[in-house]
Recover the amino acids of this structure.
């Protein structure tokens, strides 16, 4: 229940020393101003409801609502961590409206709000309480927000920290605070801008302009003035943190631009920051299972996940779900297409290695496989995805056709740290066991966009020096070039004659920058004997978030014995070696790809 006197003394304990008649008059006036009796009568009747039902009852009581277009609704991500920032024109009702809007798609939503609202029992579950009166209280609030984002929740924030006021430019938020940016950076959470329409009474703006605290005290009364009203909500596209974190802008400037972005949404205009569309909704689980029953099973993991080989088809729920999960996964590391799903024309003629969790009805991860010989016969070199990033024409295709192009590999975030990538490699080994003619594995390997620029340069410098192939004629269409400072740092860091020692130094340097060596960069080198894997070139993929890709090629015949045993099998490995030897003469990586 709402107790104004208790809240007042909790926030301003010195009032307890005032004369009783003064304190009593103040409390009585505040009780009338905040409608304490009406609020408590409402709480007595509906205080045992869940938070979502409680909000619906509030809206029914005030005959209040909001409007939202289906297009804007699609911009709300159905899963994954996200910071939702909005202007704050009304008070409690706009916060409840945002909670209700987001909850239609995801009940995991939370909102940063005043700790006074914890007195409303149904809302305690969704409120991350804010106490801005002390530095320690603010720090605790920030840690709560970070914790919620680390649980992959959606968190609503009003960066102004108070209700909008009237000014020369109209009703606008005051200065936005930067705490939410710190939480977003800590958790790599994208930002979803929302504009909330509506306004309070002229009396509110007049009094708050003269005495700000008085305006705040009037907010409960203003809520009762919102009867029979609907406010428009406008949801913009997601702003990836990588695009928001421009080094040439200070934090105050970024906050001003983001606030401007929100108000431009309210006027139906294009925002300031480049944004992405909302990710598509999940596909029906039973339909996924039905389609995958027709896929070829290559094996099963110890914990019951199935490794399947799937071919694309028209109107495929499986392909739509793969595209959705790719986009979710790649956006988490600063990449992605910016579309609802990451799908392209290559998916139609490539095969798809899928790790299927039949218990949870989830695609845990997938690999895209391009059978080079068949693709060359049907579509030529342009049928290979790598040709969009690298100029492949000089390659000797008589040898290259015994290859398998790999790409678009992902493990969705829900399964990170559960050996899913290793399971995909077991699936790849099962494919190689059935196709012993495959000699080469190749494809673009991405460096996450979230890595600092210098970290990317150090990584590329190391792999070019120790695992590059300077003789190849394959060239990137948009080369990744080291800056002069980056080249100097590479030369300072690497000794140049000890790959293991320099790798240790590389990892230490990346760790100091909050980064690490991408898993596939380590994996492709670790599975083969020295010289069995080479990075031929590094290019920038403009169609995939301007990420940096290294074109790797792996000689299957040079797999380490223990890796062959793990992924392909002892007997299968010996059989595969005999079949490959009969199919083509032994050649080096360089000769197969450019000499």
């Amino acid at each position: 229940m709402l107790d104004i006197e208790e809240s007042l003394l909790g926030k301003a304990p010195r009032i307890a020393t005032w004369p009783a008649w003064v304190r009593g008059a103040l409390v009585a006036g505040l009780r009338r101003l905040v409608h304490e009796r009406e609020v408590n009568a409402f709480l007595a009747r509906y205080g045992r409801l869940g938070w979502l039902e409680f909000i619906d009852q509030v809206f029914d009581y005030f005959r209040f609502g909001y409007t939202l277009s289906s297009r804007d609704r699609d911009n709300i991500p159905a899963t994954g961590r996200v910071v939702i920032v909005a202007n704050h024109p009304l008070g409690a009702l706009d916060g409840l409206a945002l909670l209700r809007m987001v909850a239609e798609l995801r009940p995991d939503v939370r909102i940063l709000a005043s700790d006074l609202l914890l007195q409303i029992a149904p809302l305690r579950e969704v409120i991350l309480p804010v106490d801005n009166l002390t530095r320690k209280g603010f720090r605790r609030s920030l840690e709560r927000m970070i914790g919620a984002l680390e649980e992959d929740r959606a968190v609503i924030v009003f960066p102004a920290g108070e209700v909008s006021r009237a000014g020369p430019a109209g009703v606008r938020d005051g200065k936005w605070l930067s705490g939410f940016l710190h939480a977003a950076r800590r958790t790599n959470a994208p930002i979803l801008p929302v504009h909330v329409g509506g306004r309070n009474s002229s009396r509110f703006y007049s009094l708050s302009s003269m005495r700000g605290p008085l305006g705040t005290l009037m907010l409960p009364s203003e809520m009762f003035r919102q009867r029979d009203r609907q406010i428009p909500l406008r949801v913009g596209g997601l702003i990836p943190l990588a695009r928001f974190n421009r080094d040439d802008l200070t934090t105050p400037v970024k906050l001003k631009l983001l606030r401007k972005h929100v108000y431009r949404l309210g006027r139906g205009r294009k925002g300031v920051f480049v944004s992405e569309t909302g990710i598509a909704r999940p596909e029906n689980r039973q339909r996924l299972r039905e389609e995958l029953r027709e896929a070829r099973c290559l094996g099963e993991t110890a914990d019951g996940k199935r490794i399947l080989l799937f071919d694309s088809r028209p109107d495929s729920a499986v392909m739509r779900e793969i595209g959705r999960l790719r986009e979710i996964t790649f956006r988490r590391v600063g990449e992605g297409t910016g579309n609802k799903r990451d799908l392209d024309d290559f998916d139609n003629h490539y095969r798809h290695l899928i790790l299927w969790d039949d218990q949870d009805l989830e695609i845990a991860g997938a690999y895209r496989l391009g059978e080079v010989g068949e693709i060359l016969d049907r579509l030529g070199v342009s049928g290979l995805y790598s040709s969009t990033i690298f100029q492949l024409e000089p390659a000797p295709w008589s040898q290259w056709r015994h290859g398998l192009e790999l790409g678009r590999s992902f493990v969705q975030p829900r399964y990170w740290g559960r050996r899913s990538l290793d399971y995909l490699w077991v699936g790849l080994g099962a494919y190689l066991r059935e196709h012993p003619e495959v000699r080469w594995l190749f494809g673009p390997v991405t460096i996450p966009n979230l890595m600092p620029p210098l970290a990317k340069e150090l990584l590329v410098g190391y792999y070019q020096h120790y695992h590059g192939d300077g003789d190849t004629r394959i060239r990137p269409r948009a080369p990744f070039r080291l800056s002069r400072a980056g080249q100097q740092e590479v030369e300072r860091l690497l000794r140049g004659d000890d790959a293991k020692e320099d790798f240790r130094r590389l990892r230490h340097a990346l760790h100091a920058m909050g980064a690490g060596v991408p898993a596939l960069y380590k994996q492709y080198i670790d599975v083969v004997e020295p010289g069995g894997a080479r990075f031929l070139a590094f290019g920038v993929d403009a169609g995939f978030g301007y990420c940096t890709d290294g074109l790797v090629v792996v000689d299957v015949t040079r797999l380490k014995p223990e890796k062959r045993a793990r992924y392909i099998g002892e007997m299968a490995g010996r059989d595969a070696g005999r079949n490959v030897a009969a199919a083509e003469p032994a050649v080096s990586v360089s000769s197969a790809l450019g000499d």
